[in-house]
Design goal:
Helices cover about 40% and strands about 5% of the residues. By secondary structure, it is mainly α. Strands 1-3 form a two-stranded antiparallel sheet. A two-stranded antiparallel ribbon has the order 2-6. The chain has a two-stranded antiparallel ribbon with strand order 4-5.
Length: about 625
Amino acid sequence: MNTRKRNQLMIGMAVVMAVASITYACKDFLNTTSQGTLDETSLANRTGVEGLLIATYRSLDCSSSSAGSWGCAASNWVWGSVTSGDAYKGSNLGDQQPINDIETYLWSVGEADDYINQKWAQVFEGVSRANATLRLLDKVVAEKPSEIPTADANSIRGEATFLRAHYEFEAYRMWGNVPYYHETDTDFRLSNVGVDVIGNILSDLDAAIGLLPATARDKGRASSWTAKAYKGRVQVYAGQYAAALTTLREVQATGPYALETSFDHVWTANPAYENGPETILAFQASVKDGEPAGWNSNWGERLNFPHEGSHFGCCGFHQPSQNLVNFFAVDANGLPLALTDPNWNANTPAYRDTNFVGGITAQAVDPRLDFTVGRDRTPYKNWGLHNRTWIRDASYSGPYSPKKNVQEDGVDGENNVGWQATQTNDVNIHIFRYADMLLLLAEAEVEAGVLENARTIVNQIRARAGQTAQGCGHAASAVAESLLVVAYPSCAVDDRTWYPMDQSATLDSLNTPWATYKIGQYPGPWTDQAAARTAVRYERRLELAMEGQRFFDLRRWGAADTTINNYLSSETTRRGYLSLAAAYAARHNLYPIPSVQIQLSKVGTEERLVQNPGW
């Protein structure tokens, strides 16, 4: 376990209760005296300030002091993945009904409202903790000027300001119309009407850029480059493409970030690749750190593992959709089949077990498929062959399992405490990574008409995707190893988890018994802006699949209604429960504001928070 990460998390959790007494969410805190909490005077020292700052980072994922359940996951799998067509809720019909309501766009029902409130609670607790850090820092600097060196004080201020901007941006992506809280606010029942949320976020990010050092104080913390990359992200979301070009080109040209050398280094519990060059902002998951229930692990993902029969034992949520699996098919040139074949999604749910098993002609696929999706008769990292018995109810949720968030065997990334410890790990959750940033830059280049710059970026992403593909792995038990070798005898003599692709070929390719992997480069020049825009958008889906980004992408592109309604139409034949889904309409462009928060915003009879249109 990384000692830095463990110590910081423990310090942070020691002062979380102080922040809980001033949180903006989930409780009528203005009329309630907190019990058993420390006040800011007791924390008025460097340790207290640093602890509050770490508590602010801690709110990036579900926290036992903020909100229960899974609507608060750092990855936004409920809000950005299940609602997008990338994934089904998973599991079975009866478990976590609110996510089923969210998946079927029935967002105004009571149980869905509870989940939406979990997300509101998480992001505004993050804002609360950031502002508490800033207030306490001001107090300590004023009363004890020699307590915190100026450079460290500036960094603390910059980190807290950056994190406030991040949490407010998360709120903006969800609800659009949200209040913006500063550390000087004393009336916490602020209105969400007419607020320049983007302007405030960019102002905070500019302040953070000016305060933060170019090199972060520790791995996992924000630096000036973190804030600058994030600024470009916000500018793209706001449609400020010209400004985003300036920001993101600078980060690309002179910033510290780079793509990992191969995709297997991106989502991993291997400590050798923790906080590597691709990490811009990630939740720093921690295990075996003394926390007795496992809360510091990637708690928000703990449902998202294969079910009984697998090593993990539970719980089968966030299952990749057939639509997503089909999207990884490629043509003879190794480019997305969806670009040229209108029937790319016409396969039945069972086609993976016929077209992709050795012994017959296989439909070639992008190698990122098996970094993203667990599918039958294919090695599941190095845990052995994915098996249909690992699926809780395949007739309901399909035959596939999520994969990016899962730890490998043999890297000591698994927890040892709490319920079903095998499904909590220290795989850091990428909230914003360099490949994401590069594709946002490519998007801005397309909108500016600089199409060849966009093609260069997309081909760079694809070149990295062509470095490695799923290998046999050694399998985690004697039984699993036996099943693997019986299915694929060649695995008896080659237990590499990841195989190198053929870099000597014009087209990167690799034949294995379970798939034909192929990935090609886009030829140039790009001259058609609409075609270039499609290629960039397709690359975002392939690269960032199951990472909680797609729904927000579809909404900001103005493509959510057509894409999602087409998805629902085709997917109903595969997952019957989707026939009960509401059609995507204009009101779904913003999530409804939680009803409890509207009630808590009342001053007399006036509701300061105004519900979003249509809800």
